[in-house]
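Anyone up for a design puzzle?
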């Protein structure tokens, strides 16, 4: 695809050889500086579909970022996703020497302000904390060249559309825009229309289909027997790392405690937990110390 050799070196070291469909379709157009509308779910390889060509473009036109500015801004709906995207940029760009920072709420401002003060090539951020930094004048977006909005439909669900518009109003009109969403509700279509200029459209899965690698089944059970059934299911050793979703934060804590009492290693993760608690639970789940993550 003509990617920078330093990127290819990092990809080879990470074991990536063949692009996914969205990467094959999106990378050449993003490298060419075009706006992009990507209809794609998580798990399709879309982070690399924008991270690789962005790193390529920034490397082809190196400019030292001024203090409190960033050349590229990626907006992400959650802290965990922002961290993952930031890690991807750092991994793929490890031989390019770019400054990458990740910013979200729930942690102190000091480290974030120091990172911004240096000037950044790539900033990955959740909208709420980003607006705080703009209002406190610790970040200036007037020289931003590339804007990425990831998981736009999730942004809508979380009530971030107004903050996104406020953020976009601070970025120069002359910029490259990349817009990703798994679905296209009316409000998201309207936002895409406002942001994108003659975009290339890439759609890799039909709208709102479940990722094909997942097999699905429905179990009908009375409300009062759900937790007992859940514990019983974990007597099967095949269930090694499982995600359990609940309706409420309180419910997540109760289900995790119930499973623990039944001898199943479980942890809960939700917005009422502090960032260090969330990170510890996620790390334990990744390391296999927890069989169940309740969210």
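Challenge accepted. My sequence:
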């Amino acid at each position: 695809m003509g990617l920078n050799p330093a990127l290819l070196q990092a990809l080879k070291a990470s074991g990536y050889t063949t692009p996914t469909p969205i990467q094959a379709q999106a990378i050449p157009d993003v490298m060419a500086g075009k706006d992009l509308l990507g209809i794609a779910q998580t798990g399709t390889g879309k982070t690399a579909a924008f991270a690789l060509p962005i790193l390529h473009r920034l490397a082809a036109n190196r400019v030292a970022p001024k203090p409190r500015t960033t050349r590229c801004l990626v907006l992400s709906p959650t802290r965990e996703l922002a961290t993952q995207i930031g890690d991807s940029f750092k991994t793929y760009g490890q031989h390019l020497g770019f400054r990458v920072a990740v910013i979200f709420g729930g942690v102190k401002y000091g480290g974030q302000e120091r990172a911004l003060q240096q000037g950044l090539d790539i900033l990955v951020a959740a909208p709420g904390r980003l607006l705080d930094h703009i209002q406190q004048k610790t970040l200036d977006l007037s020289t931003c060249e590339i804007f990425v909005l990831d998981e736009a439909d999730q942004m809508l669900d979380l009530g971030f559309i107004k903050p996104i518009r406020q953020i976009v109003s601070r970025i120069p009109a002359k910029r490259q825009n990349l817009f990703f969403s798994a679905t296209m509700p009316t409000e998201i279509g309207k936002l895409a229309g406002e942001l994108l200029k003659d975009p290339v459209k890439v759609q890799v899965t039909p709208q709102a289909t479940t990722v094909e690698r997942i097999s699905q089944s429905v179990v009908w059970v009375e409300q009062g027997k759900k937790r007992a059934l859940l514990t019983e299911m974990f007597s099967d050793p095949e269930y090694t790392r499982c995600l359990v979703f609940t309706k409420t934060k309180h419910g997540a804590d109760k289900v995790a405690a119930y499973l623990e009492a039944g001898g199943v290693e479980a942890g809960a993760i939700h917005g009422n937990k502090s960032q260090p608690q969330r990170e510890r639970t996620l790390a334990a789940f990744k390391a296999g110390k927890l069989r169940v993550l309740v969210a």
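A detail worth pointing out: The mean pLDDT is 91.
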